[in-house]
Hints:
The protein contains nine helices and seven strands; from the N terminus they run αααβααββαββααββα. By secondary structure, it is an alpha+beta fold. It has a domain at 124-294: Histidine kinase-like ATPase, C-terminal domain (Heat Shock Protein 90). The strands form two sheets. It has a five-stranded mixed beta sheet with strand order 2-4-5-7-6. A hairpin with a 7-residue loop joins strand 4 and strand 5 (202-207). Helix 6 (165-182) runs antiparallel to helix 8. The chain is extended.
Amino acid sequence: MRALNPFAIHEGALIGAYSTRLAEAIAVRRAELEARAARAEAELSIRARSEFLANMNHELRTPLNAIIGFSTMLRDTETYAMSDEQRRTYAEYIIQSADLLLGHINTILETAALDSGSVELQSGEIDLSATVAGAVGRASVAADAVKVSVENKTARGAVRGWGDAVRIGQAVDHLLRASLRASPEGGRVLVRAAAAEKSWPEIAVRDFGPGLTGEDIRTALGAFDEVHRGLDRSFAGPGVGLAVAKTFVEMQGGRFEIRSRAGEGTIVRILLPPPEARGNARAPGVEAPERELLSKTG
């Protein structure tokens, strides 16, 4: 007669029950950790947006107050007994403040769209020469306000690229504003669209300000590294504009590069696919900086 092992079945049952309880405990613990992470994520998101709104309070109120104040003075010209020169000056202040306010609002809307992942691209062939000319025109008010000249160094003829014309125009707008902020009074900002024989067409923006440190560049371009801190950025210094520009360019398969030298300024390059690539080719490495954009006499 075969001897019975009284522990065989029970031992297996014990091991099976233990394994089941262990798996359940692990699942519960994982759920707790996921819930805690989600809660912390939500708290960070709420805090980031609260901080962003608090930081933007000054950025938006300052130009808006200037618009209201100077508009009121122009309306009550007889009360303030202003000369024609004063009226022109105050009108310029209003235009400059409105331009600054519009720039802030556009940046807020673009940043929010990127933060939510709702940006849509309409790709096609772009005339980069026209893109640069349009951006230079839009930057004229801001340039006059800080007394900095913006010089378009694009040669005659169209420079063709592939991408979303609106988004590339917005990217160049941000680069020009960042360069204007970095430039001293009486300074220059150079911008150019160019086509290279062995490289992709590019847009380059160059200023002669104090330059950016490696940490400055990492901080500016890291605005969207943490999704819930994307809106918590100051608009001073290089600001969130560089990160917005970089994101727009890279979303279209382009390449974005910054080179800066202490005391000599900063040059930013946008490289886009040529029309025949249709955004499918790989971005080439950026070639040696163009001398006319890097030199102080270019």
